[in-house]
Amino acid sequence: MQLSSWLKTEAGKNRKQRRSLKQLHLDLKELGFEGSHDRVVAFARKWKVDQTDTVNSASKRTNQTKKVMATKPLAPKAIQLNSSHFAR
User: Fold this and answer.
1) Residue 21 needs a FRET pair 20 to 30 A away by CA distance; which of 39, 44, 56, 67 works?
2) In this predicted model, what pLDDT tens digit does every residue of 33-45 receive, in sequence order?
């Protein structure tokens, strides 16, 4: 959907450079959108919640992986060898 991609693009911009939802609604109307400004705001609100949930769930998975990695040794312990371990 056009609005989703616009919201994603706008989210990456600095606050002062972002288009407002009012401007996004006007741009959509120019493309033939007949819905109200309230529908655009509601969609943007849900989109933002979904994005936050996606980021949070990815963060939880990452933290769980870190916990598992911390409990498992990364490599076997080094074996101390001295001259008695070698055949002469």
Assistant:
1) 56
2) 999 999 999 999 9
